[in-house]
Amino acid sequence: MRFVHATGLAIGVSALLVVTAFAHVDLSGGWAQRFHEDLPERGAGPDIGDYLGLPINDAARLRADSWDAAKWTMPERQCEPHPADYGPRGPASMRISSTVDPVSQDVISWHTTLMWMLPHRTIYMDGRPRPSAYAQHTWQGFSTGEWEGDMLKVTTTHLKEGWLRRNGVPRSEKATLIEYFIRHGNYLTLVTVVKDPVYLTEAFVRTSNWVADPGFQLSPFSCIPTVEIERARDEIPHHLPGTNPYLTRTGGTAR
Amino acid sequence: MPWRHLIGSLIACVLSAGSVLLRAQGDLHMLPVQGNVFLLASPAGNTTVQVGPEGPLLVDTQRAAMSARVLELVATLSPRPIRHIVLTSGGEQQAGGAASLAKAGRYIRVIDSIDPRGIDARSSIIAHINVLNRMTVAKVASESWPTDTYFVAEWSLFSNGEAVQLFHVPAAHSDGDTIVFFRRSDVVSTGAIFDAAAYPRFDPTRGGGIEGIIEGLNRVLDIAVSGAHQEGGTVVIPGRGRLSDETDVANYRDMVTIVRDRVRALAAKGLSLEEVRRAKPTSDYDGLYGAAADWTSDMFVEAIYRDVSRSGK
Fold it and tell me: How many CB atoms lie within 10 A of CB B130?
């Protein structure tokens, strides 16, 4: 009887240890993007002035109403990559890898690289502090991760100003990005939560999906800007309030 | 009895003011930037420190009350005395500590080696000549005056193993603005034309103007080159606020230009200043740049309105 109790206890402890050890899901490998969710917005792209479903404030609406796609013709804009929160929405088949501590065998950082312009992120798992408020902001920001059950929760700050939708809706550099990487066998779901005190009235939540693709290979991507349109030195593509002609077809405050 | 309360209150006020001052002095952060360059950042503004075997070169000084703390932090970067101080303009944040920092520094001139007085016991203070002219007119103490001035569009010196280029930006924050480019370190100090935490300040009474601000920002963009995928590359140290790069300056340049265009269009329609203010031409940027109590969005709009109305541009 005593033997039965001891065996049961040993099995229970072993099971607990196994559960603890495997609570950290392996995310590494190649992942092929699935584009079915929000396809019109992510494929052909949203109409100018279409802000449906975005919890934006008046400041964001004015900036988006003033936005002109000709911005991307400026040399200093031509090679801008997608920021960390928008990257998964674009062409974003992905490679995930990890760095492992050789002694403890713990994953001390995860790395993601997306297809479009090869933006590379490092997600630190070693509990390091965030950089100074005076440090640079980058397109991919500064990311730290922690496991919540089987989900990898990632918190990113120090983001450079980006966009929520591909029609000029801004996301400020003061935003915080919270993400959850959730693996279900060969499927990977990423839940992103953007909190922006400047342009959002509440947290903005989206999901994106991938399928495991063991044969996935990233391609090189280079970009050298050039002068596409000669402009006066103090000329910036934008529309004065109430004058954006493209808003009349689809929406926006000028309609 | 009441007078004892009064004295007690006075003492408490003095101690409180002292503790505030100490906190302000202590609120200076040091960050490595790139190459030989470091940043000393305070809520009031930034000081750039370039170090090397010849002795530190500083760009802007912080306010005079911060000098002891600046010297303390610079001493952790280099055992040598401060050799050069470059002033990007002549305001309190840029030049307030010039006298005290220069006094603690040393710059050996050729003439000093044959001069019986020996070496100059101070750092050299470098600025555009308009900074000196305005300090002279304003009767600023001569210890703060630039000792070495330039009056052409560009000037340069070699310091701590790299070329340091100075670019004059006429009529921007003032008429004496200098952009400083550390060529080997690939770092640009912009001075007050780029304030990452607020709308740019310009003072027409000191020769400043909105067109000059925009031209100055474009000049920084001429110099700055981003790394692969628009990350890295030239680091830009603004007059105030966090470290930046080409994209950050482009974002700021766009904001300033767009607000200028909006105010100019409203003024061209004949709207009064009050009507232009009510149109809120900065409302989409106030969450980013409108928090400064001493330079509000209304003050920025008024400065642009008066500038474009005066110049007719």
Answer: 22
Domain ranges of chain A: 29-212
Residues recorded for chain A = 255
pTM of the predicted structure, to 2 decimals = 0.90
Asked if A122 is an interface residue toward chain B (Cβ–Cβ < 8 A), one would say no
Tokens of B85: 């101080």
Query: Residue A99, Cα to own-chain centre: how many angstroms?
Result: 20
Q: Which residues of A touch B286 (CB under 8 A)?
A: 59
Chain-chain contact of A60 with B284 (C-beta, under 8 angstroms): yes
The ipTM assigned to this model is: 0.90
Chain A residues with beta carbon closer than 8 angstroms to that of B243: 134-136
pLDDT tens, residue order, chain B (313 aa): 344 444 444 444 333 443 333 344 458 999 999 999 999 999 999 999 999 999 999 999 999 999 999 999 999 999 999 999 999 999 999 999 999 999 999 987 766 555 555 555 799 999 999 999 999 999 999 999 999 999 999 999 999 999 999 999 999 999 999 999 999 999 999 999 999 999 999 988 899 999 999 999 999 999 999 998 888 999 999 999 999 999 999 999 999 999 999 999 999 999 999 999 999 999 999 999 999 999 999 999 999 999 999 876 6
User: Under a CB-based contact definition with an 8 Å cutoff, are residues A188 and A39 in contact?
Assistant: no
Q: How distant is the Cα of B177 from the closest Cα of chain A, in angstroms?
A: 19
> Where along chain B do its domains lie?
2-311
What is the rounded CA–CA span in Å between residue A51 and residue A41? 11
Q: Which residue among B39, B218, B231 sits closest to A139, beta carbon to beta carbon?
A: B231
Q: Which residues of A touch B242 (CB under 8 A)?
A: 133-137
CATH of B2-311, one of 2.60.40.10, 1.25.40.10, 2.60.120.560, 3.60.15.10: 3.60.15.10
B31, B38 contact by CB (below 8 A): yes
